[in-house]
Write a structure and sequence with these properties.
The protein has 951 residues and is of the alpha+beta class. It has 13 helices and 52 strands.
Length: 951
């Protein structure tokens, strides 16, 4: 690299003979030149007069040969903003990252010109091209390979190579401000100027992060029962690799909207390619159940144009798919629409050929089809909203849009149109019912009040335009933030009840009041959700003296987290901390205090060892050294430091320790931080844990969950002889009839057992050698007695008594079966705000698959408990049983636990089913932290820091 910079400094690269013909309408600017500084530029190729952008018209000779996708860099008339970051400066030379703002590696790759790969970052040298006789001209060369330059080839397309001619490799970096001034001058001189470049992702390229500037919404809620969809997204590059379209299919309502801010005032024209098809490819399903062919409606002039495109308040119907139909089959027009025979009323082919897939639509539009008439609007406040919307529709209807095009016609403004835009903005704001943070609510209310005042009193176009812009931006901000702001408020209330403390709680409380951006709200919500999970995580106080490392079996106790080593996180097979932990075997090596860690988490024969990558189910028998920190406490570090990367070695990253900011993950490359208890471990034997039971009483309960095999249904556990259960292995943990561990074998972080629409359901385990006495048996789980829709609607309607057919059970010392019904799914609705399924009823959010259920379980929801006595034989059978039930009922379970209370008969154990009458004094709250007058309706409530159930 230094050699390359030296060659540039000596002028040995890019030394060419220049023609005097090269000119540019732009002044350009020099790139930022301080390390880590960055700025956005448009990159203009002077010779071609085109801009560096993604590929939208260089078509592959052979479809899908991979050479010309939308994610490849190319030259075009539109251009796009590139984030240019200075990565290195040596002397007069500098290297840069050219970030196209596409997803993945955020780099224009030097060897294939793609924008979205996982390849290493390409560093580009941007060198002055003073010999070009163009202001601020530069050449752009990759510091890789043979040091290729970017230039326009003889065929007009972008090239990375060495065959530049001194003119075709000359570029300018142009700011947005300069492009705007040039656009205004062109409109003044010529009557119009292209303004499409102001739109983010106007052609819906794959992986372009600017697509997030489009606010996309779709709903099928009001379609008839059994409807298809809805679906939306950018797709359709199977026939034309360099073109994608955006589709909205089978929805009642749908929209895609982008608001352009800080643009010149004046008149704009907007058009796009696209069409609307009412109903399916053949017919349209009316609300009354009648079926008519879509082409019949079109030819008879009865077609509904539900979809419209708009620019501010100017709207027009999106043209029909049949307006671009062909009279014969051709590529892209591959479906012969049906019609009704006028004589016999039978279905016949119409002879009108139309697209019938996104690939076909993309082909048609790439070749110029389905352009809609231009609409014009006035902008007076620097803001323009464009898009497509549909406020009602039918099953299987279809919208395709592509290639939004914007034209600037100069500074002239239609005052009546501006006032109409303000009136519409006020109307839109008054229809908004959502709320967000206190600060955003205030901004919204002030913008609306000001807009109303301006509308009534002002005749100034700019003032009205600015008021409309403020309202439009406030609506967009409200819509962007209201959902997560609501979840944040609910999570703060729950966290207060649970006494969650720390930075996350402080920041979340502040965000509820003061946040004015999505990022701040989302970050606060993510951090508080994690803090809640960590607060609810089961922990074991450090009462262990510890043991010296030796060959044998141990639990590894993490001092900082107060949890035990287990499998979890990635694939459920990465090193993690949890409860009650797993027993690992230390296998002695030649090194002192160094062992191979056998986790017993099998992923095949001899693949059950902890490797340096942090996975517990590998065949790599990597050695780990136990380094004393204090008596009985150890750091566990890699026994072979030669495996460290250069960065890891430089930063002493070789310890086994808890990953900061995670729920449970343990990393194998944690830096050696003196005194960090998250990196400290204690070796605990089963005998150590058994000994704690001796002092157990009702007032001093002791965990005995480690006696349960596979209590959390974790990945890889009990893969000893083929499987975890009696159906797949000889040495197993659980016996069951029906049901399964959801997604076992897949990449989940947490696992749960479920039985959906099955009867009977039984899952049980017999535990031996328990200490006689009293235990609390608990499990997290619930029962739902019908479909999620029927259930929540019945609950919301009132008067419905859900069945509780699933029971937690245990056989006591007298061979009596002790049971308690599992709580119903609605009793912890909204306990993990934003997780699960939104019922759109007063019930709110509930889990709708086991993965969602684990989000609720991790914050302590759905706990069921019973008291059972174990006899002198030390045998206890536990489980859950359901017999009978409605169609599509559902049982979901996780985290069986045993807590030992000693041998004395407990006197104060009331479980979790206290009657509301016994706790009628003091303030009562629901699970969302909202105070209620009385606890008379069924559900779970909180009083004096404790939960109770009203059945």
């Amino acid at each position: 690299m230094k050699k390359q910079l030296l060659m540039l400094g000596l002028g040995l690269l890019g030394s060419v003979t220049m023609s005097a013909q090269l000119t540019s309408p732009f002044t350009g600017t020099r790139p930022v030149a301080e390390v880590n500084s960055k700025a956005d530029y448009y990159l203009y190729n002077v010779k071609s007069g085109k801009w560096l952008q993604n590929n939208d018209d260089n078509i592959s000779a052979t479809p899908n040969d991979g050479s010309r996708w939308t994610t490849r860099g190319e030259l075009g008339t539109r251009g796009m903003d590139w984030e240019v970051t200075c990565k290195l400066v040596e002397g007069a030379d500098a290297m840069y990252q050219l970030n196209p703002k596409f997803r993945h590696n955020n780099s224009l790759n030097w060897d294939n010109l793609y924008l979205d790969t996982g390849a290493a970052l390409t560093q580009w040298i941007i060198e002055p091209a003073d010999d070009a006789n163009v202001p601020n001209a530069v050449r752009i060369c990759a510091n890789a390979g043979e040091y290729p330059y970017l230039y326009v080839g003889a065929d007009g397309w972008l090239v990375s190579g060495q065959d530049y001619d001194g003119e075709n490799d000359v570029w300018q970096l142009v700011t947005r401000e300069e492009r705007i001034e040039y656009m205004k001058k062109q409109a003044e001189l010529n009557g119009s100027a292209d303004a499409t470049w102001l739109i983010g992702c106007p052609q819906f390229a794959n992986q372009d992060s600017r697509i997030d500037k489009w606010i996309r919404a779709i709903s099928g809620d009001q379609l008839p029962e059994g409807h298809s969809g809805p679906a939306n997204g950018n797709t359709g590059d199977g026939m034309v690799n360099c073109n994608r379209v955006y589709e909205m299919w089978s929805s009642y309502s749908a929209s895609i909207t982008q608001t352009l801010n800080d643009i010149p005032n004046g008149t704009y024209g907007m058009t796009l390619q696209g069409y609307y098809r009412e109903g399916s490819a053949d017919d349209v399903k009316d609300w009354d159940g009648n079926s008519l062919f879509a082409y019949d409606l079109y030819k008879d002039g009865k077609e509904n144009h539900y979809a419209t495109y708009f620019a501010n308040t100017t709207t027009a119907p999106l043209i029909s798919i049949f307006e671009g139909a062909k009279d014969a089959y051709e590529k892209g027009y591959e479906y012969n629409a049906k019609m009704t025979d006028p004589d016999f009323l039978d279905p016949i082919e119409s002879g009108k050929w139309v697209p019938n897939s996104t690939d076909q639509a993309s082909w048609a539009m790439f070749h110029g089809a389905y352009w809609n008439p231009e609409i014009k609007t006035s902008v007076a406040g620097g803001s323009l909203s464009i898009g497509v919307k549909k406020e009602q529709g039918v099953n299987d209807d279809w919208i395709i849009v592509d290639n939004f095009k914007l034209t600037y016609y100069g500074s002239k403004i239609d005052l009546d149109q501006v006032k109409e835009t303000l009136a519409q903005a006020i109307k839109d704001a008054e229809a908004v019912t959502a709320r967000s943070t206190d600060a955003i609510n205030k901004m919204f209310d002030e913008a609306l009040a000001n807009g109303k005042s301006v509308y009534e009193t002002s005749t100034d176009a700019t003032q009205m335009g600015e008021a409309a812009t403020a309202i439009t931006n406030a609506i967009q901000l409200m819509n962007e933030t209201s959902t997560n702001a609501t979840f944040l408020r609910q999570t703060v209330a729950l966290s207060q009840n649970e006494k969650v403390e720390g930075d996350a709680m402080t920041a979340a409380t502040d965000a509820v009041a003061n946040a004015v951006a999505s990022d701040a709200i989302n970050t606060a919500l993510d951090n508080l959700r994690m803090a809640r999970r960590l607060n609810a995580a089961e922990k074991h106080e450090n009462v262990f003296k510890g043991n010296a490392p030796a060959a044998g079996s141990f639990y590894l106790y993490n001092v900082g987290q107060k949890r035990f080593f287990c499998g979890g996180d990635d694939w459920g097979a990465h090193a993690a901390v949890g409860f009650p932990g797993i027993m690992v075997t230390l296998v002695e090596t030649d090194q002192a205090n160094t062992f191979v860690i056998d986790t017993r988490l099998r992923n095949g024969e001899n693949q059950h060892y902890l490797n340096y990558g942090g996975y517990c189910d590998t065949g790599a028998q990597d050695p780990w050294t136990f380094v004393p920190v204090k008596e009985g406490v150890y750091n566990i570090k890699r026994g072979n430091l030669e495996s460290l990367s250069e960065e890891e070695a430089a930063n002493n990253q070789y310890l086994l320790g808890f990953r900061k900011g995670s729920y449970s993950a343990v990393d194998s490359n944690v830096a050696d931080e003196m005194g960090d208890e998250d990196n400290m471990w204690i070796l605990v034997t089963k005998e150590d844990r058994d000994a704690l039971l001796e002092a157990a009483t009702e007032e001093n309960p002791v965990d005995a969950s480690y006696a349960i095999k596979m209590p959390n249904f974790n990945q890889r556990e009990y893969e000893i002889s083929g499987g975890w259960d009696n159906l797949s292995g000889e040495e197993y943990a659980w016996e069951h009839t029906n049901g399964t561990i959801y997604n076992r074998g897949s990449n989940n972080h947490d696992f749960a057992f479920e039985a959906f629409n099955q009867d009977p359901v039984d899952i049980s385990q017999t535990i031996y050698d328990l200490k006689p006495g009293y235990y609390i048996l608990s499990v997290q789980g619930y029962y739902r007695d019908c479909t999620e829709v029927d259930y929540t609607q019945a609950i919301a309607a009132g008067g419905y008594e859900p069945k509780q057919l699933a029971n937690l059970f245990a056989w006591d010392a007298n061979m009596n079966q002790i049971t308690t019904p599992l709580v119903t799914i609605d009793q912890y609705a909204n306990y993990a705000p934003g997780y699960g399924w939104n019922s759109n009823t007063s019930v709110g959010w509930i889990p709708n698959n086991p993965q969602q259920a684990t989000n609720y379980f991790q914050v302590g929801a759905y706990k069921n408990s019973l008291l059972v006595q174990v006899g002198d034989d030390g045998v206890l059978t536990i489980g859950v049983h359901k017999e009978g039930g409605a169609e599509k009922d559902w049982v979901c379970l996780d985290n069986f636990r045993l807590t030992y209370l000693g041998t004395q008969t407990p006197t104060g154990i009331n479980g979790v089913t206290d009657d509301a009458e016994t706790v009628k004094d003091g303030k009562i709250y629901n699970l969302q932290g909202v105070q209620v007058k009385s606890a008379t309706q069924r559900g779970i409530y909180i009083q004096n820091g404790k939960k109770f159930v009203v059945k």
